[in-house]
Amino acid sequence: MADVAADLKTWSATASNNSPTTATTVGTGLAPNLQEIQKVIRQDLANAATDVASASTTDIGAVASNYCRVTGTTTITALGTVSAGIPKVVRFAGALTVTHNSSSLILPGGASITTAAGDVALLVSEGSGNWRCINYMKAAVDPAGFPPTTAMMFAQTAAPTGWTKSSTHNDKALRVVSGTASSGGATAFTTVFGSGKTVGAHTLSVAETPSHAHPGSTVPVDSTNSGNNTTASRGDGGGAAGNAPLSIASQGGGGSHDHTLSLDLQYVDVIIATKD
User: Fold this and answer.
1) Rounded to two decimals, what is the model's pTM?
2) Which domain holds residue 100?
3) DSSP-derived pairing of the beta strands 105-106 and 87-92
4) By CB distance 3.0 to 4.6 Å, which of 69, 94, 225, 243 could disulfide with 49?
């Protein structure tokens, strides 16, 4: 019969705390102990995945394997208690929520995770029931490794797999800022930038017209009003010969005018999507 503990997680990092003790008579027990050591190493470090049903406390630490599969859809808030430093590779069989906790269940980005079938997490025990997820890989692999809630733009109608299309912003322009990112404005992009835009009409006042003169000339007249083709009557009632002022007719209707502009700017539609 072997004296060695049958599970790696119960072994101590202090040699003298492990079995067998110096008081143990090895004798025929040598072979069973060596065999038990080999079995423990094999089962805990290189064993096939063991199924564990999801529960509020899903005790992956109790599994005699460093690789396990979590089944079910129950929300997980704890992973059980095991010695610090014990690693566990967990594969999820379906969709459930793993709830972030800043001390007992520390997840990447400080955010809870909604799992999908085939997702894999690498977790390490920090002792006293505390666990830290040091890597999480989606079954639909994102090679860039964007953390959840990352927002990006895509020049396509539908969000890529693993992303969710945002409906917060629609028909808006982009603005580059060096400070806090925000949004604003009141008029839609296509309303401002379209064809046939007209500026407001305005009628020029006398003060707004350029300073200018109206040059004229006079023609000689005779006092006899003889009808000579080269002369004209004064037209002012005077009988003496001389020059008569020339009348200049006015033109224009005094109306306003406008300026039609075309702001039909070319554009490419993009969507904003966030990482699931």
Assistant:
1) 0.49
2) 50-137
3) unpaired
4) 69
